[in-house]
Amino acid sequence: MTIFDHLKLATKTQHQSVEKVLIGELKNLQNAKDYANLLHRLYAFYAPVEAQLQNIINENFMPDIKLRQHMHRILQDLSILGYPIKPIDCNETLQITTPSYGLGVLYVIEGSTLGGQIISAMLIKQLNLNDATAISYFSSYKDQTLPMWKQLKSEVLASQEELNEHQIVSGAKDTFDMLRQWLLKSKPLENITL
User: Fold this and answer.
1) CA-based, 20 to 30 A from 17: which of 8, 89, 92, 175?
2) Which uninterrupted H or E stretch holds 40?
3) What is each CA distance from 85 to 39, 41, 52, 140, 191, in whole angstroms?
4) Does residue 193 fall inside a structural domain?
């Protein structure tokens, strides 16, 4: 069993819990403002996480780590939607102190790009978005999504002996759990206008 098989099995409950909250919210989006609100909340959660990942996982270990940044896509989508970024205090910030823990966090983030392809198609249809570029976050890698996922797996498996599997699983579980808590706690954002 590879670390990815173990991760999938060990985080199944947490993954399903956050997916239930996110998909439920996505299905209830009524307009671009609702969508922008969700993007804003995802940004508040993930921006500090992404910054930590970029500091803790270096290019010697994962040469393409700089390509695995997604927050600029949320900012781009919000700009297209005409939705300004306003500070939100997200107390749910993960503390990433080891590369192994960071890889667990990255597993969740990069794994979400796989589901993002389905979410993108859903959003275009559901919200009648005229400009498909307003979904760049959920369609991060476009036709390179599967190759990027396979590359991540390859890079991690190549270094599996040096990693702490318990910390990887903890990082993934904590990310799923904290994201779920944040989505529930921050819904809806008040006093945000387009």
Assistant:
1) 89
2) helix 32-56
3) 10, 10, 20, 20, 12
4) no
